[in-house]
Amino acid sequence: MPVADTARADGRETRSAFSRNAWRSGWLHLRRILLPTLLGVAVLALWHIAVTRGSVSPIILPPPSRVLGTLWANLPLLREHGYYSAFEALAALAISSALGLLLALVISTSRVVRAAVYPNLLVFELVPKIALAPLFIIWVGTGSESRLLFATFLAFFPVLVATLAGLRATDPMLVRLCQALGASGWQTFSQLRLPYALPYVFSGLKIASVMAMIGIIVGEFITGNQGLGYITMFAASNMETSLMLAAIMLLCIVGVALYGLVAVAESLINRRYGRPRS
Amino acid sequence: MRDNTIAGLAAIGVLILWEALTYAFQIPELMLPAPSVIAGEFAGESGRLILANTWPTAVQTVSGFAAAALLGIVVATAMVYSDIVRETLYPYLVAFQVIPKIALAPLFVLWLGIGFWSRFAFATFMSFFPIVIALAAGLKDARPEAVRMCAAFGGTKAQIFSQIRFPYAVGYLFAGLKIGATMSIIGVVIGEFITADRGLGYLILWATSRSDTPLVMAAIVVLCALGLGIYGLVVLAERMVNRVYAGG
Amino acid sequence: MSGSVAQLAEASEPYLAVESVQKVYNAGTSHELEAVSDVSFGVPSGQFLSILGPSGCGKSTLLMMAGGLEQPTRGAVRIAGAPVTGPRRSTGIMFQDPTLLPWKTVLENVLFPIRIQRLPLKDYHQRAHELLAMVGLGDFANKKPHQLSGGMKQRAAICRALITDPDLLLMDEPFSALDALTRDELNDALLDIWQRTRKTGIFITHSIREAVFLSDRVIVMDRRPSRIVDDIPIPFPRPRSMAIQDSKEFVDICAHLRGKIAHA
User: Fold this and answer.
1) B238 touches chain C (CB under 8 A)
2) What is the CATH code for A64-273?
3) What is the pLDDT of residue B161?
4) Tens of pLDDT along B162-185?
5) What is the predicted ipTM?
6) Which of A84, A211, A234, B162 is most buried when burial is the number of CB atoms within 10 A of its CB?
7) Given an 8 Å threshold on Cβ–Cβ distance, is B146 in contact with C101?
8) Residues of C in Cβ contact (< 8 Å) with B142
9) Cβ C38–A18 below 8 Å, yes or no?
10) Which domain holds residue C121?
11) Which residue from A126, A117, A105, A118 is spatially nearest to B10, judged by alpha carbons?
């Protein structure tokens, strides 16, 4: 039969296409990791060369080796202030989340209140609330309460807005179904609106974690006497650039960790209460 | 529309309440000045001060945002055209989006001084990432059927880009631009806080040091108006573009 | 009897020739897929051919190769003797999704292939209007796609496929996403267009009734391996009307084809 003949005749061709394609797909996977790594290595190398052999002053940009050395040498100091910043950011996130969720629940019980509040909230979200940081200094002073309050203030609104949006977002057909089944208000809320609102709530919490971090950092920049933000400013004023870079690196790590915390919480809760992603 | 009238009335109501409570309880100006007092700051000496400092802030915000938008479009386009560029850059773009970029503000001051350039660069830095990530996602997302249809009629890669990918990506682009606009002004304000050189952020700090709360709040009001104004321009631009590219 | 039309077509140098075509995707990787095993047939000029078969039998892949959007792993697809290496100006194509660009008017969408092929748009304006009138969309030239129903969008897609006056029209389940009534309407519209234009056409469908109603010839494909299992002529004279669908001969042909597909 012609089919079998052609198959046999081109068997060799198919086999070489086989190995060629296997190589190709492996290379593509490797490339995805290799290329960004190469870029990172290249940047670090350029950095090192620019400072040790080039014209860039080590005061402006210390070589990566010195930054790491400073980081290691000052580990206890950085760790202490790092915990401080992390704790403050976490506290701000926790308080703002609780307040935001609670207030959203209260507001959404009344259609009129929601209609009055929600559009104003959206406008408020767009406004650079960072500018209010000095106001908190006037009101609460320069201590840690002021920073905490400011960060809570910043992080509170994303949670409130997102939760309000989420509670509204339930498919109206499903709400009608619940009503048809004779479900009580509470049942409709807990069985339907809450699970549907979860993705919105978590996206709001993620933004809130970023805002809480920003609030703490900005607070420590302008008023700090403790925390990694304060260390950054302190090191900058003393021209200790390595320390400054080390503190900034740690600040970034704390920020990512906080965001990661929310992401992990999201996946845990989704596994128990959430809907499968469509 | 009815929703917005209720909200508008509520906002006005809050202002009136604020004014009334300030007088009823004799709240000191240091703590919470009445709206009328804040409005008064726009006249006379402080008014001139506010105006003088609004200009640099506005210029830096707009230029930082524009630079970020331009850079974002170029990089996102490169990422769509070249797999190598995309695979190299994408992890870093995501990484920079996730870290608290605010923390890097002092670096910009260290490297670029306390003048215009450090604040401009930082504003660009802050607003670049949401723009490029949004646009790259949009360009990649163009309906595959539309791409196939264009290819079926003989479309070249460039035509597929200009006729299909970019128009479909416009929605994503504007979503990124909106976030970028808000990030830009945040970057400028933080920059002004740190460099303490000029601008509304600096004015706020200066007024704080003199416990001049009405001036602080007046400056904040202008800053908020500026932020909303730039955001509003983006929304306007989006509406105009949508009239051409409606749907998607 | 089943091979006679095919043999006749091959004998007289068919307009479209599919010669021992095989298509394998991702050869050598873990997701290697043989979409088409070994298919050969010829389509004479002016014939309307339907390809029937279950999902995964390779009929869409064949169409893609005829349209120059895919290349066969082995074998060749030739149009008028020349191998198909890419999309051709004289091939029109339609897919299940009309994919009209939402920001362009209906008229601009119909003229889209002209713009892509960098031909002068104004030369084709009149033709575009005529085509739209032919499918009953004459008054909708300046409307946007979102103002059209699903059936109307596909009619516009037909016009777009015909704007360059192609010799070959390829259609990949163009009416599958529509409701039954609209589908019948569009079948009638397509028959009408065929009467007037007599192009060569390859039509892919899941519907046996649609295939028999529209075509001069039906090919049935099988999957695993993807090859032809039947190739029959459809003897009804044109012009055809919906009434023939109730005739005994129509019902018998459908039953025969159903049996061939069920075997697959």
Assistant:
1) no
2) 1.10.3720.10
3) 85
4) 888 888 888 889 999 999 999 999
5) 0.86
6) A211
7) yes
8) none
9) no
10) 92-165
11) A117
Q: How many structural domains compose chain C?
A: 2
The predicted-structure confidence for C159-210, as pLDDT tens digits, reads as follows: 999 999 999 999 999 999 888 898 998 998 898 888 888 889 999 998 999 9
Peptide bond into C239 cis (omega under 30): yes
C240 alpha-carbon distance from chain centroid: 18
CB contact under 8 A, A245 and B193: no
Q: Where are the beta strands (DSSP E) in chain C?
A: 16-25, 33-43, 48-52, 74-79, 82-83, 91-94, 168-172, 200-205, 217-221, 228-233
Q: Which residues of C touch A20 (CB under 8 A)?
A: 27-28
Do C38 and A20 make contact, defined as CB atoms within 8 angstroms? no
Taking CA–CA distances from C226, the nearest residue in chain A reads A3
For chain A, helix, strand, coil in percent to 5 are 85, 0, 15
Query: Are C111 and C75 members of one domain?
Result: no
Residue C188 lies in a domain: no
pLDDT in tens, A93-152: 999 999 999 999 889 888 888 888 999 999 998 999 999 999 998 888 888 899 999 999
CATH code of C37's domain? 3.40.50.300
Same domain flag for C85 and C13 = yes
Residue spans per domain, chain A: 2-52, 64-273
Strand-pairing partners, residue C172, are C204
Asked if residue C62 and residue C115 are part of one domain, the reply reads no
Angle between helices B83-98 and A241-273 (to 10 degrees): 90
Give domain status of residue C247, yes or no. Answer: yes
Residue ranges of chain A whose CB lies within 8 Å of a chain C CB: 2-3, 6, 10, 14, 17-22, 24-25
Question: Is A19 in Cβ contact with C28 (below 8 Å)?
Answer: yes
Could you tell me if C89 lies within 8 Å of chain B, comparing CB atoms? yes
pTM over 0.95: no
**Quick check: A131 and B90 CB within 8 A?**
no
Task: State which residue of chain B sits closest to A37, comparing Cα positions.
Answer: B88
